[in-house]
């Protein structure tokens, strides 16, 4: 258990009387804050919050623990400040795989200009979340629905040959003259193998009459690219990625697919620093711009 993060969540929720507002104040999701507080309660062997009412209320033990928990949070912030002022702290950030190396280099350079020692770790969505949970990184770019993201990137279909206009999935349906084995397949990258992207795409493909095997999650971008270059297959990509790979990109008519990325930090103090220092460069590395837009949060 991350004792500092758990105390931070508990103090914030207790002071605001709301899991939602308390979690938002420290840059956590509501379920994440709830899990951290529950872990703290298990660690201490007492119940800190009464959850039976509309708003969480401090139990007797919660009242006794609140001030010591505040002291833990303040001590942690003081320790981090001392380390930062001494120039000793590295901050590890988990980012998506497949970003352009020059654009990631620009992220690191921007962090140096801001006096930070940033270490980037490329990983797939589930791995990024696990790295943060286990304390292996201090921050990650979480894959979230577009409406919940700090940055959003519109996805379409890319292939070796251009396709005019928007691509409708029923255009890929096998015809009587073309066996299913010769029909174009659509490859979904591991980065997009998340419920809010995978499930709508698979459902739309089924509704459009595509074969079961025509939509699949590929093992890597390299594997998808090999298939695309050797056939009429398509891969789900952003326009930014397609241009970098010299592929023809077309918008997808239905369903609308949008990657959302939320900057999630173990310590709330890191969130504002990272956004200010590398937000612009992160947006470029993620492909925000071409067919994309800033997310709902500043």
What do these coordinates show?
The radius of gyration is 22 Å and the shape is elongated. The longest helix has 26 residues, at 60-85. It has 2 domains: 3-84, Winged helix-like DNA-binding domain superfamily/Winged helix DNA-binding domain (Arc Repressor Mutant, subunit A), CATH 1.10.10; 90-298, 3-Layer(aba) Sandwich (D-Maltodextrin-Binding Protein, domain 2), CATH 3.40.190. The chain has helices at residues 3-16, 19-25, 30-44, 60-85, 101-113, 125-133, 195-207, 221-229, 239-244, 268-286, and strands spanning 49-50, 57-58, 90-95, 117-122, 139-145, 151-159, 186-188, 215-217, 234-238, 248-251, 258-265, 292-294. Strand 7 (186-188), helix 7 (195-207) and strand 8 form a beta-alpha-beta unit. It contains 10 helices and 12 strands. Residues 290-298 have low confidence and may be disordered. It is of the alpha/beta class. Strands 3, 4, 5, 6, 7, 8, 9, 10, 11 and 12 form a 10-stranded mixed beta sheet that branches. Helix content is 44%, strand content 19%. Helix 1 crosses helix 3.
């Amino acid at each position: 258990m991350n004792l500092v993060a758990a105390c931070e969540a508990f103090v914030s929720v207790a002071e605001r009387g709301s899991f939602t507002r308390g979690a938002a104040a420290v840059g956590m999701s509501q379920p994440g804050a709830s899990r951290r507080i529950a872990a703290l309660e298990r660690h201490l062997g007492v119940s800190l919050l009464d959850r039976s009412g509309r708003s969480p209320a401090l139990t007797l033990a919660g009242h006794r623990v609140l001030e010591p928990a505040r002291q833990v949070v303040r001590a942690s912030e003081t320790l981090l400040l001392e380390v930062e002022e001494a120039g000793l702290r590295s901050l590890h950030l988990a980012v998506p795989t497949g970003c352009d190396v020059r654009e990631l280099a620009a992220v690191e350079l921007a962090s140096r200009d801001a006096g930070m020692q940033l270490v980037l770790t490329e990983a797939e969505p589930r791995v990024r979340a696990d790295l943060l949970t286990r304390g292996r990184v201090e921050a990650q770019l979480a894959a979230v629905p577009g409406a919940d993201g700090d940055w959003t990137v519109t996805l379409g279909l890319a292939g070796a040959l251009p396709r005019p206009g928007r691509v409708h999935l029923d255009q890929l349906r096998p015809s009587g003259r073309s066996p299913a084995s010769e029909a174009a397949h659509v490859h979904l990258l591991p980065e997009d193998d998340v419920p809010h992207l995978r499930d709508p795409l698979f459902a739309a493909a089924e509704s459009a009459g595509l074969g079961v095997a025509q939509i699949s999650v590929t093992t890597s971008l390299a594997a998808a690219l090999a298939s695309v270059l050797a056939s009429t297959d398509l891969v789900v990509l952003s326009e930014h990625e397609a241009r970098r790979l010299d592929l023809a990109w077309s918008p997808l008519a239905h369903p609308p697919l949008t990657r959302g990325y939320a900057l999630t930090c173990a310590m709330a103090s890191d969130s504002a620093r990272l956004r200010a220092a590398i937000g612009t460069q992160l947006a470029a590395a993620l492909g925000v711009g071409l067919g994309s837009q800033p997310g709902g949060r500043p």
